[in-house]
Amino acid sequence: MARRVYFKIGDIKGSGVLYDDLAPRNVEVLCSNLPMNDPIRHARWSGQQVYIKIDPLARKCDRVENPVSQVSRGQITFRPERGMFSVAYGRARLGDQPIHHRTVAGFGSLIGHLDENVDALLEAFAETDSKGSIPITISLEALA
Predict the structure, then answer these.
(1) Class of 3-139 per CATH?
(2) Beta bridge partner(s), residue 50
(3) pLDDT, tens digit, for every residue of 80-89?
């Protein structure tokens, strides 16, 4: 049975499915830190993507599971070496800050995808491109 994750941004709510079977350790480490109420930020080096850096989770996983470097709209990823949870609202790649005019590509674990109220959630995530960050609640329980 797949685990669900719920998102709330203002009045907008939606959810996604986490891939326990493809990235069991990465999903478990992330879920152990939920619920959370933090700002989600635009990942400016990575294209159309938002992220939350969860410092206590950095390096709690010994490897990337189900590795990807390019992600598509609605995909959920986790970079265990950085404790970084992210969602793509368009085409994105898991890149790091440019060094000497090039962006260093990274790999993350593809841990899930959005599947409920996707368009509204992704529009809200896209607002980080102009606003920088927006408050979000992420939980394993449905949000009121």
Answers:
(1) mainly beta
(2) 42, 87
(3) 877 888 899 9
Q: What is the pTM of this model?
A: 0.87
- Could you give phi then psi for residue 122, rounded to 5 degrees? -65, -35
8-state DSSP, 95: B
What gap in Å lies between CA 31 and CA 40, rounded to an integer? Answer: 17
The one-letter code for the residue type at 126 is A
The 10 Å Cβ neighbour count of residue 116 is 14
3-state secondary structure of 63: coil
Domain ranges for the chain, please list them: 3-139
Reported as a single tens digit per residue, the pLDDT across 54-106 is 877 777 777 788 888 888 899 998 888 778 888 999 988 876 555 554 444 45
